[in-house]
Amino acid sequence: MIEHQHWHPAVSVEALGEKPVAARLLGDDLVLWRDAAGVAHAWPDRCPHRGAKLSLGRIEDGRLECPYHGWQFEGSGRCVHVPAVPAFTPPVTHCVRTFAVREAHGLVWVRLGDGGDVLPAFAAEADARLRKLNCGPYVVETSAPRIVENFLDMAHFAFVHEGWLGERGASAIDDYRVAETPTGLRATQCKAWQPQSNLHSTGPAQVEYTYEVNAPYTAVLTKIPEPGTVAVPDWRESIALFLCPVDAERSIAWFRLAVADFESPDEKLRAFQDTIFRQDQPVLESQGPKRLPLDPRAELHSPADRASSAYRRYLSRLGITFGVTR
Q1: How many Cβ atoms sit within 10 Å of the Cβ of residue 50?
Q2: pTM for this structure?
Q3: Rounded CA gap, 248 and 46, in Å?
Q4: C-alpha 321: how far from chain center
Q5: Which residues are within 8 A (CB) of 8 and not within 5 positions of it... i.e. 6 or more apart?
Q6: Burial call 26-39: b when 16+ CB within 10 Å, e when fewer
């Protein structure tokens, strides 16, 4: 599958500590763990000896130990110790398959197949004027593409987020532009009238959005409210949506915030994001089919859906099959 060539977040960096961690990605069970040097590893969650879950084992002397017979594997994936026969030197064929792993944006990313070395970008990451904070994980019973499409959609603000990001009396969406980019798409000149666009809003505001999709299951937005409508001077924020496609109809979502707020406690910033996403979640999980239909005739469309329609075409061009129907 083409999805195996892309990087996907599997767990948060903070979740990966002194014990192995079970995860699931693109329908495959994984085990993630750190060796003595703190390097993260991702393997199939299955011992090649008798098939026990390695995530039930433990880390001993920087090696991952199987819970069943105590076989120990070093970071390269090679078995280096079989307790039942201590004098036995395992051949190089006694090994576990390994996957590429990277750490970025507070998450541990895994690539299941060969592919590019570039992780999904989040330009705000390098801006020292913005505070970075992750929200989640949120387990969502729908496909990753459905969640990305919802993230790109402004027309639901007035109904799903009434009193927060929208109001029924101001539901019209002005014309906006969508263009293809080398990594996906970019939507600009997107505007929405919002009663409370962020945690520090002092009143309703016209807010300008820019959206970017730079990987199949990743999207980023920036928000710029009207001057004088936010208590924090020079308020700016950017939010990245990073999705783990667990199964075709189940996903884990993280939001990475980059905000001009170094004063509010983490809990307060997360509470606002929790409120917004918990409004989205029941609607997302109600949509059918759960897998995003890429056939343009499968669902109806309006000019307000320009970004989501472009996203569907982007997935079609890539040849994405996981979490979609054609």
Answers
A1: 10
A2: 0.95
A3: 21
A4: 18
A5: 25, 26, 109, 110, 111, 217, 243, 244, 245
A6: bebebbbbbbeeee
Instruction: Say if residues 116 and 318 touch (Cβ distance below 8 Å).
Output: no
Kindly report the number of other CB atoms within 10 A of residue 163's CB atom.
11
Q: Are 224 and 192 in contact (CB under 8 A)?
A: no
Q: Which two tokens stand for residue 59?
A: 């880390």
CA neighbours closer than 13 Å in the CB half-sphere of residue 146: 27
Write phi, then psi, for 251 (nearest 5 degrees): -140, 160
- Give long-range contacts, CB 8 A cutoff, 24+ apart: 100-106: 100/7, 100/42, 101/32, 101/40, 101/41, 101/42, 102/7, 103/13, 103/40, 105/9, 105/132, 105/134, 105/240, 105/242, 105/256, 106/12, 106/13, 106/14, 106/132, 106/134, 106/254, 106/256
CA terminus-to-terminus distance, the chain: 15
CA distances to 66, 155, 296 from 300, in Å: 51, 14, 8
**Beta-sheet pairing, 205-215 with 184-194:** antiparallel
Q: What is the mean pLDDT of the chain?
A: 95
Residue 193 in contact with residue 209, Cβ under 8 Å?
A: no
Q: Which helix (H) or strand (E) holds 307?
A: helix 306-318
Distance CA 167, CA 270 (A): 23
Residues 23, 10: contact at Cβ < 8 Å? yes
Tokens in use for 84? 């039942």
pLDDT at 303: 96
Of 98 and 207, more confident? 98
Q: What is the pLDDT of residues 93-116, one digit of tens each?
A: 999 999 999 999 999 999 999 988
Share of the chain above pLDDT 90, in %: 89
Portion of the chain with pLDDT greater than 70, in percent: 100
In sequence order, what are the beta bridge partners of 221? 211, 239
Distance CA(16)–CA(27), nearest Å, equals 20
